[in-house]
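Section 3.1: Structural characterization of target chains.
Under the original work plan, the team committed to producing a structural model for every single-chain target entering the pipeline before any wet-lab resources were allocated. The record below documents one such target. The sequence was received from the expression subgroup and is listed exactly as submitted; it comprises 220 residues.
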Amino acid sequence: MRRLIPMIMALLLVITACGGDTSGEPDTGGDGAVTTQPDATQPAGDDDGGSDGTPAPTEDDGDDEADDAEGSGPSTATVTLGDQTYNFSTEGAVVAQCLTNLFGIFSVQLPMMDESGAQTGGSVAIVALREGTDPEEVGEVNSVELDVGDETWVADEADDMFDQFDQLEPGMSQVDSVEIDGRTVRGTATFFRQNSLFGGDEVETMTGTFEATCGEERTS
């Protein structure tokens, strides 16, 4: 729309310039000499305009449009732990969320899909704070929670489990790196297996990677 309005205005100016005296007779001075008027549609010496008088298009770096562009299609995500990669998508999902900027948060909640595209009962939740977002104000930190059905893997340095289990120590559950690139968020994380807190003194941890891309934004 920002590009369309200047083009319409330019065309209106050309139409107005061409809509003057339509008699076709040249102007004559008092001594009978013919005085020719410059063609309004072809301004002399204007190398920037087109042959029809319309202004030449200006280059646009497109940065604003790229940042504000609306997504389309399904939102997708992957999480890799060891040699296992889990896939997630909004396609066919009844409940899902993918928002690139929810009060300064890149927020993803997607159901897990198998290779055939059917939902399997698992899910992923990703919270990534955009640059400049204060964790204290939004009450969130960067985190990833992976539910694969029988097991839940958590990468969240502020998880409530830290207060309940002494064996869970800092560094066992956190997002190690995160990058937001347009409508995509990716990073690395250290996860702990939630069930390992109940089976003994040793907490099972694993490092992994995650990535999510928001298509059409949705909240349910």
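Residues 4-18 form the longest helix (15 residues).
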